[in-house]
Every structure is written in C-alpha cells, then in structure tokens.
Amino acid sequence: MKPLLLFLAALLALPACKKDNTDPNGLPAATQEGKNTAGFLLNGQPWLPKASYVGNNPYTVSASYGPIRRAHRLAVSMFRYQDVNNSQSLTLYLAGVRTLGTYQLNQEIDPFVISGLEPSHAYYRITSGARDFYTGSTARGQVVITRLDTVARVVAGTFEAKLREEGGPDSLAITQGRFDLKF
After folding, report:
1. Under DSSP, is residue 123 helix (H, G, I), strand (E, B) or coil?
2. What is the DSSP string of 55-67?
3. Phi, psi angles (nearest 5°) of residue 149
4. Which sequence spans correspond to the domains of the chain?
5. Would you place residue 3 in the very low, low, confident or very high pLDDT band (cuts 50, 70, 90)?
C-alpha cells in the first residue's frame, strides 16, 4: 500500500516540477525560436505590441536583416495600435550585425536624413502629438543578440535603453526588452 501511495504522490507532484515561462510583468518569455514575440517595460510598465483593427493592419512585430550598401543591417520593429489617431512604435536599428553579441545604441543620428547607413540607434514614436524619442550620446542603450540564424531566418535578443524626446524635455526608460522574431 505504501508504494502505491508514494507513486500517487509523485504523480501529483509532476505538474509542480514543470518550468514556468511566464514573466511576472506579463512580458513574453525570452525565447529564441522565431515565435514573433516582443515586449519591454516602458518607464516600469509592461508594453506589449497590439494589432490594429482599423485599416486591416495586423502587423505588431517585424524584423528585417540584410546588407544595405555593404553593411549588414538589422531592424526590429514593434507596434501598438490604440485607435485611429493613436499608435506607438519602437524600432531598433543595428548597423554591422554579423554575429551574436552586444551592440551599443550611443551615437547621435539626424532624424531628417535617412540613408540606410545611420549608426545603431533606437527610435520610439507616439503618433498622438507627433512625439519622437531617440537614443544618442546622452541617452544610451544596448541590444544583445542571442540568436542570429540566417538559414532559419530567426533573430532573438534582449535590449534596454534610455531615449530623449526630439526637441523636448522628456525621456523614456526601456528595460527588460526582449524579441524573438522571424525575418
């Protein structure tokens, strides 16, 4: 009888041994499988992509990777649609990405000149009020690429950044960022 009770107790304990992949902040797990997930904390609050139901725009996350004028460029974008007049987005631009590693977001860019050769930076846009925030020499960040698979076309990583408002006094803090995307 005792062996049967021990067996039943062990069987009931199995679900408790299962690894929990949920984040206490409600962010997606930091996976590396091309699940097309992303999220971060914006000033300490969870920020998750949200699809638009207006204008048939289902895209919430995207990634592109490849050579632009002989420089390997990675762009990771996340979108959050609130309503027709209010959306937010974050885009991470990384120049010279060929391997896994840490990429710094610490150089100034000119937001009015887009050539495809801009230095690595992060850009956060709030359409309501047309507010733009950038990383730069005084508002820095970093992206850690943990998977870059050009055969399976998967990129995954983590990021954090401080961004300053273009022409304004405000700043944003992004922490615990993660993405797992197909490109």
Report:
1. strand
2. TT----EEEEEEE
3. -115, 105
4. 2-182
5. very low
pLDDT mean across residues, the chain: 85
Q: What is the token pair recorded at 155?
A: 């990129």
Phi-psi category of 181—alpha, beta or left, where left has phi over 0 and alpha has psi -120 to 50? Answer: beta
Please give the full DSSP string across 25-92, using - where no structure is assigned: TSPPP---S---EEEEEETTEEE--B--SSTT----EEEEEEEETTEEEEEEEEEEEEETTEEEEEEE
Interatomic CA distance for residues 172 and 165, integer angstroms: 8
Supply the pTM of this predicted model.
Answer: 0.82
Could you give the 3-state DSSP secondary structure of residue 169? coil
